[in-house]
Design brief:
225 residues, Rossmann fold, 2 domains, nine-stranded mixed β-sheet, 4 helices, binds acetyl coenzyme *A, Acetyltransferase, AcTrfase_PglD-like, Trimer_LpxA-like_sf, PglD_N
Length: 225
């Protein structure tokens, strides 16, 4: 299968190793706007993202290997592709239950566990050794960082970032675009567009689409799920 990887930073290095290790996957290009022009390294084209259109062929799959949820979403919205054109991939060491579902464009990194009946949306990252327990639902464009644990029946809105080694107790909801600090313990629902840290968590910031503002009252209204 022809694969085009978008993004050539830290997260992409891990995704690239996953894809290069697959026998039937052939990486034709790694696109990133840090490249001003196209060139080849060992037969793989490195070029700006604008090269995508001319490199697409029938059956080519695209993976956006960028850790930042907002940037991933911006790129998906700019590209003229359907969800089915995006690759979903799980590292061979990951455990994905047969009853779990993984959306188009999502990557499941080494040693992650997606347990029974869990649902991972589209364009999300379940990072190294993260655990998404049974019946949990992960929204599109989310990122569950290394070693984080979502216990059973946890749900997240779109664009949620769960920091490394954070723990979410069963049944809690993380509102869209919320950010959970590394090592935090979530024992209550987290409002949308908020940043929560600590064990148990406290809210330290609220924002709209990552744009900080001091109008707290207005934000709290808008932040309702
Ligand atoms: C493979 C990979 O690398 S995947 C990437 C994984 N990335 C992560 O896990 C990063 C998660 N990010 C964090 O934990 C960050 O600290 C954030 C996003 C929660 C907060 O970042 P910032 O907004 O810059 O907060 P800032 O550093 O200014 O701290 C604000 C307050 O929160 C506290 N705080 C920040 N992070 C945490 C945390 N994880 N746990 C507890 N308290 C925290 C600070 O001590 C500070 O407290 P104070 O106001 O009482 O002094």
């Amino acid at each position: 299968m022809r694969i085009i990887i978008i993004g050539d930073g830290g997260h992409s290095k891990v995704v690239q190793e996953m894809i290069f290790a697959k026998e039937n996957y052939h990486v034709v290009a790694i696109l990133d706007d840090k490249y001003e022009r196209g060139f080849q390294i060992e037969g793989v084209i490195h070029a700006p993202v604008s090269y995508l259109i001319k490199l697409l062929r029938k059956g080519t799959k695209v993976v956006i290997a960028i850790g930042d949820n907002k940037v991933r979403k911006e790129i998906v919205e700019q590209l003229p592709l359907l969800p089915k054109h995006y690759l979903s991939i799980a590292h061979p060491s990951a455990i994905v239950s047969k009853s779990a579902t993984i959306g188009f464009g999502s990557v499941i990194m080494p040693h992650a566990i997606i347990n029974a009946n869990a649902e991972v949306g589209m364009y999300s990252i379940i990072n190294t050794s993260a655990i998404v327990e049974h019946d949990s639902t992960i929204g599109d464009y989310s990122h569950v960082s290394p070693n984080a644990t979502l216990a059973g029946n946890v749900s997240t809105g779109e664009g949620v970032h769960v920091g490394s080694s954070a723990t979410i107790i069963p049944g809690k909801h993380l509102g869209k675009w919320s950010i959970i600090g590394a090592g935090s313990t979530v024992i209550e629902h987290i409002p949308a567009y908020s940043k929560a840290v600590g064990s148990p968590t406290r809210i330290i910031d609220r924002f709209v689409n990552n744009d900080k503002t001091k109008k707290e009252g207005e934000l709290i209204d808008r932040a309702k799920n």
